[in-house]
Amino acid sequence: MAPLFRGDAFIDPGGKRKRGKEKEISTVEEQIGDQVDGELAVVEEETAFLVARAADPEDWLVRFEKSPGFAAREWAENMVRVYNRRLSQPNAGPPTPPGVQPASYEPNPED
Amino acid sequence: MADETQSPEEAGAERESVPNDAQTVPKTPDSPTARGDTSRTAKGKALEEVGDLSDFPEGSHKVVKVGGRQIGIFNIRGEFYGLPNVCPHQTGPLCEAKIVSGTLIATKETGWKSEWVHDGEVIVCPWHGLEYHVPTGQSMAYPNIRLRRYEVIVENDKVKVRL
């Protein structure tokens, strides 16, 4: 158990606060740490695509329900692709810079 | 809709518009427990302690790391909820949003007039502004997207999460 974030301060496991100014933050990953240890994977169920930890496909995080007109597979695959790329390329960041409203929230295979 | 008291940096991106009435009412997830989803096999996992009750005052939320993932722990009017700290859109740190607010909806029932709902129950991704209803994990904009809800309980003044 390790509290990470409270308001504007990061808290290390020992309880000492590290405010952003104390450390040069250069990448998205350094700012927020790994939200999930290891890669993510898509798991298909009869009614939904799930995004789960690759190391334990039963351990899901998000559920995208299959439905006409909703690209559940594309949403799940996009989430996995973006997250795994952030893991392997910490400088990559998200396709749309944080704080910028994307033109569309729909998944883009080219992201 | 961004909180007018927030700076642009705090507010992050503009929150998404509400395109239709299908998104306005979070569905009740078909989960086996009132406030938590189990893993797909429903195999029992131990409760993990994440802090003292005093670390989570009412109206607050905090991200902890437990079981190899970051989880946002929310105390909303004395009820505890846990959500993964990852936005399904572009994997932003959803639960690090500073404010848990409500949102505006417009439906046939409201005569297509905006109505403030879910006060104190909606979190907005700080990266791109997608909204989620904390108690259900439901995306407000996309009715087909739902976050897993981790069961959070208080036991002997300790806050514990079931993975």
Could you characterize what this model shows?
The complex is a heterodimer of chains A (111) and B (163). By secondary structure, chain A is an alpha+beta fold. Chain A has two domains: 1-33, no CATH class; 35-94 and 105-109, no CATH class. Chain A is built from two helices and six strands, in the order E-E-E-H-E-E-E-H. Chain A has helices at 28-32, 72-88; strands at residues 2-6, 9-11, 17-19, 40-44, 48-53, 56-65. In chain A, strand 1 (2-6) and strand 2 form a beta hairpin. Residues 1-25 of chain A have low confidence and may be disordered. Residues 1-12 and 16-33 of chain B have low confidence and may be disordered. Chain B contains one helix and eleven strands, in the order H-E-E-E-E-E-E-E-E-E-E-E. Chain B is mainly β. In chain B, the strands form three sheets. A four-stranded antiparallel sheet of chain B has the order 5-6-7-8, with no helix packed on it. Chain B has a three-stranded antiparallel sheet with strand order 1-11-10, with no helix packed on it. A three-stranded antiparallel sheet of chain B has the order 2-3-4, with no helix packed on it. In chain B, 2% of the residues lie in helices and 37% in strands. The longest helix of chain B is centred in the N-terminal third of the chain and has 4 residues, at 8-11. Chain B starts with 7 loop residues before the first helix and ends with a strand. Chain B has a single domain (8-162), classed as Rieske Iron-sulfur Protein, CATH 2.102.10. The interface between A and B is large, with 50 and 49 residues. Strand 1 of chain A pairs antiparallel with strand 2 of chain B, so a sheet runs across the interface.
